[in-house]
């Protein structure tokens, strides 16, 4: 099968297309023919070892000191089941599923992936494309994981910092569903795109809007992990809750989260946000797009013209 592999850490150019064996479908796995995946922050940070301080050493120990133990990146998928292990009683050949590989398993930037049956995955909505579904998974499950830590009361205020990224786009929409009064914060160049998600207000951090903001919020969610500490202290109420993807708490994806995302998608109240799409053979360009840090939503990788 064709797969995007990287054999050393570095810039987007270390990723290249290669022919590798189709994964073996073990008894407690299913084999999925992938229609689409995405390149997200977990992929580019792992590829480039883009983590701070001692975390870089830890990441090398886990992923491989000199070269990656798992050369195929990609955490999310949408596609069709083509084989099932003997223990995979919940799935059948022909099922369309979307989800993610667990932990640091990766492996989704390829034509096929073997997925453990305990992984977070769910059946695809009938009218959804593979590209739409993979744009929900990473951002949606991450946003749900963190926002569920903050109970919403009527009138509770929430600031989403980094509202134009894959996580931020989902967080704005999900927080509205949860009853928050949402203020979205992003670059001014993304104002129109973020406002289309339905926040109650928008603040730009590339002009003086955020600096001049005197509102203090019940919840501040840093969806990119880069909010300055002084800004956080200024904008958070005295008993407020601060949530960040850049801390020690790591999002855990569940099947229940995916079922919830699917329900909202089918109801038309959660829309996928696709920044751009690339073919698998153009995976280097997809990584480069994410590295710009100017994308809106998800960068999708299509395996064929039917996705």
UniProtKB/TrEMBL annotation:
Gene Ontology CC terms, in alphabetical order: mitochondrion
Any single Pfam family the record assigns to this protein: ADH_zinc_N
Keywords associated with the record: Oxidoreductase
Domain Enoyl reductase (ER), first and last residues per copy: 10-301
One term of GO molecular function: L-threonine 3-dehydrogenase activity
Record EC number: 1.1.1.103
Catalytic EC class: oxidoreductase
Annotated protein name in UniProt: L-threonine 3-dehydrogenase
């Amino acid at each position: 099968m064709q797969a995007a592999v990287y054999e050393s850490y570095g810039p987007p150019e270390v990723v290249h297309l290669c022919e590798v064996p189709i994964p073996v479908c073990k008894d407690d796995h299913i084999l999925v023919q992938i229609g689409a995946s995405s390149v997200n922050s977990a992929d580019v940070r792992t590829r480039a070892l883009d983590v701070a301080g001692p975390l870089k050493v830890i990441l090398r120990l886990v992923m491989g000191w000199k070269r990656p133990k798992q050369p195929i990146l990609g955490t999310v998928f949408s596609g069709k089941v083509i084989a099932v292990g003997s223990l995979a009683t919940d799935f059948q050949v022909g099922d369309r599923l979307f989800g993610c590989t667990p932990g640091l398993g990766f492996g989704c930037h390829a034509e096929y992936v073997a997925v453990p049956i305990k992984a977070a995955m769910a059946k695809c909505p009938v009218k959804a494309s593979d590209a739409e579904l993979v744009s929900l998974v990473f951002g949606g499950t991450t946003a749900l994981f963190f926002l569920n830590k903050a109970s919403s009361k009527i009138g509770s205020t929430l600031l989403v910092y980094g509202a134009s990224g894959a996580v931020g786009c989902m967080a704005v929409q999900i927080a509205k569903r949860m009853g928050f009064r949402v203020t979205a914060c992003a670059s001014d160049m993304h104002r129109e795109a973020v406002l289309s998600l339905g926040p109650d207000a928008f603040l730009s951090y590339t002009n003086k809007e955020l600096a001049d903001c005197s509102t203090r919020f019940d919840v501040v969610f840093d969806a990119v992990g880069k909010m300055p500490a002084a800004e956080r202290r200024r904008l958070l109420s005295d008993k407020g809750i601060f949530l960040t993807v850049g801390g020690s708490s790591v999002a855990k994806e569940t099947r229940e989260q995916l079922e919830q995302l699917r329900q909202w998608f089918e109801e038309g109240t959660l829309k996928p946000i696709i920044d751009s799409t690339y073919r698998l053979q153009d995976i280097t360009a997809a990584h480069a797009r994410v590295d710009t840090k100017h994308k809106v939503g998800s960068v999708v990788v299509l395996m064929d013209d039917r996705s």
